[in-house]
Amino acid sequence: MHPHLACFNAACRARYDINDVLYNCPACGGLLEARYETASVDAAQLKRAWRERRMDNAPLSQSGVWRYREMFPFLDDLSHVVTLREGNTPLLNAPRAAGYGGLARLTFKHQGFNPTGSFKDNGMTCGAAQARRLGMKRVACVSTGNTSASMAAYASAGGLDPLVFIPHGNISYGKLAQALEYGAKTFQVEANFDRILALVRVLAQKLGIYLLNSINPFRIEGQKSIVIEMLDQRDWRVPDWIVLPGGNLGNVSAFGKGLREMLAVGLIEKLPRLAVVQAEGSSPFYEYMRTKGLTPFRAQEHPETLATAIKIGDPVSWPKAQFEVETSDGTVTCVTEQEIADAKAIVGQCGIGCEPASAASLAGIRKLTAAGTIDRNADVVAVLTGNVLKDPDYIYRYHTGQLQAPDGSPIQPAFGNKPVVVPNDAERIMSLIR
Ligand code: F0G
């Protein structure tokens, strides 16, 4: 079976050429995914080859994405690849965060160690490669910030023109700054993420621009490498739970697909359970899954959260996310602004740090252990999706007691660490240190 695109909708399953420029199934409108024949894969041999590549200086071996390329063999010619040595993100033990989350132990998989500081790089290297293979000149995305930073970097590195569309006033400066610095033509649109996505889809079609949002199936292929690398780093010991924040729901879709495919070829022996955490004010997936999918999916018109990365009311990948959460016997929860802010400060106190959306993982763990959904002794990996420096404004406001929830209510800096203004006077300063 050659690599091809297939409709994700079980009632359709239409197939398309891997080189068709499609984002939804022309037959039924469903989501698309890349598919391959993997029956002949020898798991033990792959594990050995992947370990050997870690010692190899070839750029594709050094990439924590392309090292695992046998699991997403959609390219016929690897010269299309643009790599910034993405992936290679660490697993970090965090006893303090474990205690806060109600666990005996906790490991973070920190995707903020990526070249542009978020997990988007794992997917973008694949999306950019496919754009180059298709001979596209321009690429576009709408973004809450991280996708735009990543796309701008990979497009510029690969000789493509990046066009970025962002909700005006609703992304952090760190992310906007990256898009500008990496040379993206940047449009700040006066609408929210969901409306801009509809707009950009029209523009992409009319102008022949390649869309690199997570609706692009090749982005999802690359993001599978996050869980493949995680399992490789754990010597293929499967955790009980993987916990991650959910926005547009591309990442949980990628994790689920990657894990199922690893199970199918014998790289792992069982599936971990997936827990998705949304911000309370932007939680359409949580609301839907709470009814066990018995009510129709309803988008939220006006999503709100200070964790702007996940401020999304109409996540495109919800059908895939539902399938992956249910297949893994997982769960979906939501957390308040205060819970995100405090969890984020705790991640910081571990010497690790992350951006607000990422801290939803730890806030969610705390809630799920309190509810008894996650056992205190469970083996849990929480994914930190973005770097601490993505949103310094939020950090300063929290620690100085100036952070306000979208409804204007104050966030209490329960773990605040306010800077102290002092005169240039050794005695006075010593009196404050003693
Ligand atoms: N965490 C961070 C830091 C993100 O930037 C995003 C998504 C998510 C979590 C949620 O991931 O969408 O796959 O469920 N950011 C996108 C963007 C939407 O435009 O950068 P998801």
Order of helices and strands: EEEHHEHEHEHEHEHEHEHEHHEHHEHH
Could you say which overall geometry the principal axes of the C-alpha atoms support?
globular
Provide the helix percentage: 25-40%
Question: Between the first and last Cα atoms, what is the distance in angstroms?
Answer: 71 Å
| Helix/strand class | alpha/beta
The number of helical elements comes to 15
Account of the 3D structure:
There is one protein chain. The chain is α/β, with parallel strands linked by helices and 434 residues long. It is 38% helix and 14% strand. It is built from 15 helices and 13 strands. It has helices at 43-53, 59-62, 95-100, 120-133, 146-157, 173-181, 193-207, 217-233, 250-264, 284-290, 318-327, 337-349, 356-370, 392-399, 426-433, and strands at 4-7, 15-17, 32-35, 91-93, 107-110, 138-142, 161-167, 185-189, 210-211, 241-245, 273-279, 331-335, 380-384. The strands form 3 sheets. Strands 4-5-13-10-11-12 form a 6-stranded mixed β-sheet, sandwiched between helices. α9 links the parallel β10 and β11 (273-279). α12 (337-349) packs across α13. The model has no long low-confidence stretch (mean pLDDT 97). Residues 118, 120, 143-147, 214, 245-251, 309-310, 355, 357-358, 385-386 line the site of ligand F0G.
